[in-house]
Amino acid sequence: MCGIVAAVAERNIVPLLIDGLRRLEYRGYDSAGIAFIDEANQLQRIRSAGKVQALADRIDSERPGHLGLAHTRWATHGGPTEHNAHPHTASERLALVHNGIIENEQAIRKQLIEHGATFTSETDTEAIVHLIDHLLAQGQSMLDCLVEVQQQLQGSYAIAVLDQQHPDTIWGLRKGSPLVVGVGVGEHFLASDAAALVPLTQQMMYLQEGDIVAIRRDQAALYDQQGKPIERTIQRSNLDPESSERGHYRHFMLKEIHEQPAVISATLDGCLNGTRILPSLPAELLSQVRAIHILACGTSYHAGLTAKYWIESLAGIPVSVEVASEFRNRRPAVPEHTLMLAISQSGETADTLAALELASELNYLATIGLCNVPESALTRACDHALMTRAGLEVGVASTKAFTTQLTVLLLFTAALAQAQDKPKSRIAEVLDALGQVAQQTREVLALEDQIEALAYRLADKQHALFLGRGAEYPIALEGALKLKEVSYIHAEGYAAGELKHGPLALVDESLPVVVTASSNELLKKLESNLREVQARGGQLIVFADRAVTLDSNDDMHVMHLPLNHSIASPIVQVVPLQLLAYHVGVIRGTDVDQPRNLAKSVTVE
Ligand code: F6R
Prior knowledge:
CATH superfamily of the largest domain: Aminohydrolase, N-terminal nucleophile (Ntn) domain
Number of domains: 3
CATH class of the largest domain: Alpha Beta
Strand content: 15-25%
CATH topology of the largest domain: Glutamine Phosphoribosylpyrophosphate, subunit 1, domain 1
Shape: globular
Structural class: alpha/beta
Largest sheet: 8 strands, antiparallel
Distance between the termini: 12 Å
CATH architecture of the largest domain: 4-Layer Sandwich
Mean pLDDT: 94
Bound molecules: fructose -6-phosphate
């Protein structure tokens, strides 16, 4: 969703801001804008609907600036037009960018109009800049204004604002949406996402709820929500500056699919300390757990569903998995000694954060967040954090974040089983299976050409069905989600056993049915489901492990994967489905990295 980047430096900041916006493009947006103070101390504002390149094309490279802010907007209040694009201005001296949503915008707008403000957009953001303008006109300092703004605004927001009458400072404020300060040598930056800043500096200060910051060339001064000076520690970002580069890959999604063996290994390394599994989780906590509630959205929800199969079978603990958008709006019953596990790759998803907020009012034993972004709202809100090491995921369709989530969730299962005194041999089996996942994934990736050839079978279809059984049922759901996201083909994931209860009615010779088959105790049942599809003329594509004895025929294409069945198989089984979706999207000519209507981090309800 929206992105913020701001800079104060001796060098010309205009190209830095445009480059920062490009690094935020992955979040999804529909317009962009920049405001800066030029060398004649004039406030310049340039905005454009569409891509950052359209904005860059309008900028006069002969006009440098040393202080400025920029924004990518994902429309919520008002359409994706130039006049709604940020920055918004007031009194020809203030320019402001904003992420998040102001819930009481209408009331504030009405009051400010009564005081003489003129609004030129439909955005909620414009109310903030006019509110600051109104408070400044009463003689308040910018710091006092931002303290007051927090009292008046309802909703979630991160803002950056500059005042042409004080052309050495940019102010920032974080309340519900992330904001990070980049600390350089004689220059400072602000951004909604460290990814925008990593080529400029690796030294980051993550703002906390209510923090206000004033960045100048030589310092970043921080204040709490009452305006009292505070300090925040500087942390070194471990984001690879190249993670926001595509390298030789045609798309980020493809690059990220291919990064999976490396990031799965890195995640495993980060979660094991000698014989200790997930050392950051106290064993005494895990031994008390009697039930688990998993909350997440989208792909992260599918990771949670897979974990339910693992945890119940290995650790014997009942697990319920629910989409956070439902959980947050009901009154859930929480049995004693229930652990809440919230999964979010970004750590910013509004529904998951709201579910966590609700959890704080309920009787949970503890909350654990599984996340890919250090210092995110999710990791801060939970009692304990488990981290994946997927690195920055730029493609909107989640791939490496998912397989690294599964890796940690299987380790979490082993840690729980250990704390609950389950047989050591089962735990050793899990660790052994996980140890082979990276290599097996590498071998599946080597089959890409064959998977690309299969993609042509789906590319002209309107619908597709994905089937799986057991822990591969969530993998079928994920395969269907990937296909619909990046190819816009309508796809449904089903537990294969549900076929007869409805979806079989859809099956005819025009329907591709994609299946993952493992040589486990459910294989015979799955084979019956395949026969049901074949009997109705459906076109089967089956991704099978090496011990499955199915052969291709006229209406069934079987691709054998270099994979021995194990508890970790779902992690590898999803990889061909990711590649299939990617290639179908490419053949159909969609924007696979930024599918229409979607954003990377869904920071609004
Ligand atoms: C799908 C996808 C989304 C996210 C969902 C939750 O490819 O990426 O479904 O999984 O929006 O996002 P996080 O994990 O950041 O909470």
